[in-house]
Amino acid sequence: MTDNKFTHIDKDGKANMVDVAHKDPQIREAKASGKILLSPTTIELIRDNDMKKGDVLTIAEIAGIQAAKQTSNLIPLCHTLMITKAEVKCKLIDNGVQVNTRVKCIGQTGVEMEALTAASVALLTIYDMCKAVDKNMTMEDIKLEEKTKVDL
């Protein structure tokens, strides 16, 4: 039987950061993805590295890594984690850019929020860098692909 109680709300309906002190540290990993749809002209500008703001894919990857490390500052009830790996890969696809992230830590709670935040911020960075030339960009399919935990 599952407990349907919300863990981030206390008995009085107030915000509650879950106490994970009783949990054993584990190797935790999460993967997330998303994509941004772009015009053919924008894709060509990115491919040719002709965007005025610089190398779109590299900057988006760095932004995603930075975002993973800042997740607890952005999501109010998210735990601060010691991330051991944050990987963000951006690649051109036929209709835009595909973003895939992988975040890892040794901790008492998962890193799915970090992986999702990395994907979201990488996509937002692409949007920011391309907004002057593409007014019809659409971000979509931001999702958690996988999360795992392994005992130490």
Could you walk me through the main structural features you see in this protein, from its secondary elements to its overall organization?
This protein has helices at residues 40-47, 56-69, 71-74, 112-130; strands spanning 26-37, 83-93, 96-107, 138-151. It has 152 residues and is of the alpha+beta class. It has a 4-stranded antiparallel sheet with strand order 2-3-1-4. A hairpin with a 2-residue loop joins strand 2 and strand 3. Helix 2 runs antiparallel to helix 4. It is elongated and about 55 Å long. Its EC number is 4.6.1.17. Residues 17-149 form the Molybdopterin cofactor biosynthesis C (MoaC) domain.
Secondary structure: elements and pairs:
Elements: E1 26-37, H1 40-47, H2 56-69, H3 71-74, E2 83-93, E3 96-107, H4 112-130, E4 138-151
Antiparallel strand pairs: 1-3, 1-4, 2-3
Helix pairs in contact: 2-4
Characteristic terms for this protein:
152 residues, 4 helices
Q: What is the SS-derived class?
A: alpha+beta
Segments where pLDDT lies below 50 for 5+ residues? none
- In the CATH hierarchy, the third-tier topology is known as Alpha-Beta Plaits
Roughly how many Å is the radius of gyration?
18 Å
CATH architecture: 2-Layer Sandwich
What's this entry about, in short?
Keywords: Lyase, Molybdenum cofactor biosynthesis. This protein has 152 residues and is α+β, with helices and mostly antiparallel strands.
